[in-house]
Amino acid sequence: MGDAYRVRFLRLEANPDLPLPSRATTHSAGFDVRSADLDFVLQPGEIRAVATGLVMELPPGLECQVRPRSGLAARHGITLPNSPGTIDPDYRGELKVLLHNVGDAPFPVRRGDRIAQLVFARFEAPRVEETQRISDTQRGGGGFGSTGRG
Predict the structure, then answer these.
(1) Distances in Å between the alpha carbon of 83 and those of 15, 18, 118, 126, 142?
(2) pLDDT for residue 86
(3) Which range of residues forms the domain containing residue 76?
(4) Is residue 141 assigned to a domain?
(5) Is residue 31 part of a domain?
(6) Nearest to 116 by CA among 88, 79, 86
(7) Averages of pLDDT over each 10 residues, the chain, 150 residues
(8) What sign for the dihedral angle of Cα 8, 13, 50, 92?
C-alpha cells in the first residue's frame, strides 16, 4: 500500500511505554487501542472519556471509526455511547475513547488495557445542493420495517 494509506501516530510524552494500535490477527479489521489513564474503576451507568496517549494523522479522505471491543461488551457491558465515533482527518488532538458501563458491576480499567478498536474507512464528501423535487422509488417514504418482516 502507498502513502495514501499511511496513518501516523504521535505518542504523547507521558506514554512512551504504550504500544501503537495493532491488529490481533492478520485479517482483523480493527486495531486495538489501549488506555493511557491511571488505573480506575468504571461504575455501572458511568461514562468516562479515557485517554489513549496518542495523536493521529490521517490522510485526506480517510476517517477513523472508534468502535467497542465485542468481548468487553458481551462479558462486561462495556461499550461506547457514540459508537462508532468518527475521527476526521483534520483532527490533531489526543484520541480519547468514551467508555460506558451498561453492566451491573463495577469494571476495573488498568493502564495499558485494550479499550476499543479503530477501523479506518475511506469516505466521500459530495456536493450538497437544494432541490425542488426528489425522484420516486418503489419504496418511497417507507421507513423502519417497511420492506418486510423481521
Answers:
(1) 25, 24, 11, 23, 26
(2) 95
(3) 3-122
(4) no
(5) yes
(6) 79
(7) 76 90 95 96 98 96 96 95 94 97 97 97 94 88 69
(8) negative
Question: Which cell numbers in the block locate residue 69?
Answer: 471491543
Of 57, 4, 11, 3, nearest to 34 (Cα)?
Answer: 11
Give pLDDT, residue 99.
97
What's the rounded Cα separation, in Å, for the pair 51 and 36?
Answer: 5
Determine contact, residues 56/64, Cβ cutoff 8 Å. yes
50 and 93 in contact (C-beta within 8 Å)? no
| Confidence at residue 35, expressed as pLDDT on a 0 to 100 scale | 97
**Which pLDDT value is given to residue 138?**
81
Q: Specify the number of domains making up the chain.
A: 1
- How many Cβ atoms sit within 10 Å of the Cβ of residue 107? 18
Q: Is residue 137 part of a domain?
A: no
Determine how β-strand 85-87 pairs with β-strand 31-34: unpaired
Radius of gyration over every alpha carbon of the chain, rounded to an integer in angstroms? 19
CATH no. for residue 117?
Answer: 2.70.40.10
117 occurs within a structural domain: yes
Query: CA-to-CA distance for 60 and 77, rounded, in angstroms?
Result: 34
Single-letter code of the amino acid located at 1: M
Cell of 90: 483534520
